[in-house]
Amino acid sequence: MAQEFYDPDIIDDYIINEATDKSEGVASTKTIGSDKELKIKSSTRQRVRYLSCLFIGLLGFSMFVAFISYFRNAAADQSAVLNSSAEALAEGGVKIKNIAGSLGAWISELFISKWIGVGSFVTAVWLMLMAYILKGARRLKFYSTTIISLTLIILLSLCGGYITLHHPSAINYGGNFGTEIIKFLIPYVGDFGVGIIFLFLIGVIVIVSFGVILRIVRNLRKTLFFKKKSPETEPKEAKIESLDLPESEETGDEKIDFDVEDTDSNISIEENQNEDIIDDNNQATDDNTEDNIAGEITQAPPVEKADVILPPIDPTKELPHFKFPTIDLLKVRSVKSHNVDFEEQEANKRRITEVLGNYGVSIKSIDACIGPTVTLFEIVPADGVKIAKIRSLENDIALSIAALGIRIIAPIPGKGTIGIEVPNRDPQMVSMRSMLESKAYQETTAQLPMALGCTITNEVFVGDLCKMPHLLVAGATGQGKSVGLNAIITSLIYKKHPTELKFVLFDPKMVEFSLYERLQHHYLAKLPGDDPIIITDSTKAIATLNSLVTLMEQRYKLLKDANVRNIELYNGKFIKRYLNPEKGHHFMPYIVVIIDEFADFITAAGKEVETPISRIAQKARAVGIHMIIATQRPSANIITGKIKANFPGRISFRVSSMVDSRTIIDCSGAQQLVGKGDMLFTNGNDLVRLQCAFMDDEETIRLCNFIDEQVGYAEPFELPEYIPPTENGGIPSGDSFGGNSFDRDPLLPDVAEYISGMDKASTSAIQRHFRIGYNRAGSIMDQLEAIGIVGPATGGKPRQVLVDASQISQMI
Known about the structure:
The protein has 30 helices and 17 strands. The protein is an alpha/beta fold and 812 residues long. Helix 1 (8-21) packs antiparallel against helix 3, helix 3 (35-72) runs antiparallel to helix 7 (120-135) and helix 28 crosses helix 29. The relative contact order is 0.06.
């Protein structure tokens, strides 16, 4: 028989009681005579055992606390422990942050970094469990607890070593033991083999501790299903519970062993014996109880199923790990606190007053407001002075103050004053970083916020492209037009997730937007095919613009089906799961179309470009498509009346003539700007003078690299396929392929065979596989649709293949 669990209290009490009961005879007299000696020995052993328990338990607890403190102060304590001698640590000359002192820091460094890593916590817990076992715990076994702890230490050390190798840090989570073993295993078995080893160790832990887990489950089952007990069964239940005790009297002649070595076998023996006794003594009670439970279950009322409430759809889950660019990617530029000194300001006031007085114009007061580029002098004229008279003195005032050019605002909207804008001799640069860090930009509620620049009062101006809804930008060469477009793109990227915003970029000069090619897997959209992501050719520009028109019509159909009026309401309903994706509904990202040097496309294509742009400008606002057109020639033949009527948002940098100024902003003034980002903005109402935010190529490259290094979509956002019309219409009209409504392409059977094994087919895939042009691939796709092999187009997504391979061979 296996060795019994040794409990000195039980054995000593048993000897003493036995001696007391045998009060007759010599043996009884001899045992009773040594009663005092037995009590002294029992008391001594008990004190030693309790002191040992206390020491081991406190040691384990101290180590556990020291290990936790080590993880909080590892960086500081490591250098102190490694670079100091034992004498210095003992004398306390080294500053240690560990809560357990220098000894705790040294032990933590030894156990965690040098030996077994995070498995050290299991060592501390094992010591506390040993103290509990030594105290006399009957339900914990020494060998099973040690085996589980040892396996867990190995598992955690290996896991920590694996984490340390893949994510290095100041703390060696696996210790030298786990790290070196993982280094040795990975070249031979790889990450998969290491995972198998982890599963094996977990299996060892589960198998060794299976008996304990089974006992917990059975106790839980009894607790849940046998809560109500009749008075007759209570004594028997008490007898059943007493089976856990080591005394042999509880179970008759049989004696239950509490073996320390063979954990699983003993647990199974104990449980089998207990179950046999339960079955023999309580069979009738259990039958009655089961009948009662069955009757309760039969008579229980049916439970109604609760409505399942699904959480709202998060469209950003398509790229869950995307991180918005940080503000550190942009440069911090020096800001001059006093770009216009007091003497210059007072001198300009005096000269303006003198010029007006020389021509008989009296004023009541004059105040100055200093901006980054110009200073605004607000004049309150005397009673009876005509505004037109002050306007006529514009050149005289400019001559008197020797300025590059002044601009008179007569009157200033909302004020009873007249404004004279005078350029500063030392203009101040406005950085893009200061725009994005401003409170106006951070707290804006605009859907498409654009941080355009600073006003004369040094306030950050943030516009909303959704409310404009299209923007026209003009300016002579070198006046800041391209920098302004970069500022608009950057401010949109810092606010919108790739699933919420897409750009379509047109760059006939081929160099302005080339830096943004790296954003193709996150923010850019294009036609299907292998063409460049940045559109530089007028032919591709026509196809892309017409594709945007197609996308606009498709989105309007979805809005009609959803019974909403704009994209914001549509996306709101889709996120709340009011729209079924199986019916073609999907989350719609905003699409911003930016055309740099629009005059080049108009010159090359004319009406073919103007017509789709006019259609988009007229209708696309509600479906989230917005356009920004820039040109350096704002003449009437480039910016036609049809385009101007649908572009209420205007930005004008410095232009060469008053005629160009009137073309772009319908008034003069743009020809008097000072350049270098100085601009006028209007959205169909009053003009606002701004200093555009500056952003150089280095900042743009850092921004694009930061986004490009993150996980993006496999392909850029695809716009709908566009098939240019041919002489005979270009689109098949027959109901079957056998008619003469369109010519059969020779590659049609091969393409049908190619897509027969697919669930979905796309024009770009056919184009790449058969090495044909996009127009021909699109024509073949339309023929397949007319036959009934593929389904209709659904935006920029691949088409559904409707038949299998056997049916395709019969239809061709």
